[in-house]
Design brief:
This protein is of the alpha/beta class. Helices cover about 20% and strands about 30% of the residues. The strands form 4 sheets. The protein has a 6-stranded mixed β-sheet with strand order 1-16-2-3-4-5, covered by helices on one side. It has a 6-stranded mixed β-sheet with strand order 6-7-8-9-15-14. It is globular.
Length: about 270
């Protein structure tokens, strides 16, 4: 039995011609866990690009534990040997690179992957497909206030902050946003995202039939976006339950997933 399963989504792109397809593999939240069968599954899916949604490694802890990244590094490196790879930050990468004691280690991690061809999207964007209907991919590095576990400190990103970080959504393009945290769908939609790819919540750790994910980081119960497909106006969001575990080292009725997204013509 596979420890990781594949889930496929189809998203219609108005500017694509009938029969046209761009296949994307979305990986998120490995947290330096093992990844049995993942590379074989990528080969079987044969994506046009692999998108990394963040938290492939684990940040240092406040108790002085060093970052853990060897498996995350190996996974991304092996994927990059066969596919174009684009890597957006999660909260663990963002925290690790700002950690004074371990900053050099993050730089080494990033530079080693860049030498393998990985493109990091640190509040940056790249065109995945040109032509009359370009596909533009944005990697958003959210701030500390968006990840806070304390209700009084946590707040959504403002439109001014989003535009300062990643600029305006490209007019005439199909826009994909990778912000890691799914909770701010309203803000992402207002910014202009056509498709949001997120993770962070690990599917809610435990999933209850008819209810969904149970818990979010900070022990918030029944978070609204934990796994699957959501929509707000013209914006769709696909949330990965992730490939690993972190603080809570188990998953119940919540298998690890490789997400495959097919962008197709109408």
């Amino acid at each position: 039995m596979r420890l990781i399963r594949s889930r496929q989504y189809t998203v219609q792109v108005p500017g694509f011609e009938a029969g046209e397809r761009l296949r994307l593999a979305f990986l998120s939240d490995l947290h330096n866990n093992i990844y049995p069968g993942l590379l074989r599954m990528l080969r079987e899916a044969a994506p046009d690009a692999v998108l990394i949604g963040g938290d492939m490694a684990n940040r240092p802890t406040r108790f002085g534990t060093p970052p853990r990244f060897t498996r995350g590094y190996g996974c991304v490196k092996q994927a990059a040997a066969e596919f174009p790879v684009f890597y957006a930050f999660g909260n663990h990468e963002a925290s690790w690179r700002k950690h004074e004691k371990y900053g050099a280690a993050f730089d080494a991690y990033r530079h080693a992957l860049e030498k393998k061809g990985v493109r990091f999207l640190d509040d940056e964007s790249v065109t995945l497909r040109g032509g009359t209907c370009p596909v533009r991919l944005y990697g958003l590095d959210l701030g500390k206030a968006q990840y806070s576990h304390h209700a009084k400190k946590r707040r959504p990103p403002t439109q001014e902050e989003l535009q300062e970080r990643i600029g305006e959504a490209q007019e005439g393009a199909f826009t994909i946003l990778m912000p890691h945290h799914p909770d701010y769908l309203e803000e992402y939609a207002a910014w202009g995202a056509d498709l949001v790819l997120a993770g962070h919540l690990h599917g809610g750790q435990m999933r209850l039939p008819g209810i969904g994910g149970l818990i979010a980081p900070g022990f918030k119960l029944f978070p609204p976006y934990t796994k699957g497909r959501y929509a707000l106006g013209k914006t769709e969001m696909i949330v990965s339950p992730g490939l690993g575990t972190h603080t809570i080292p188990f998953r119940v009725f919540n298998p690890r997933e490789l997400v495959i997204v097919d962008l197709i013509g109408q």
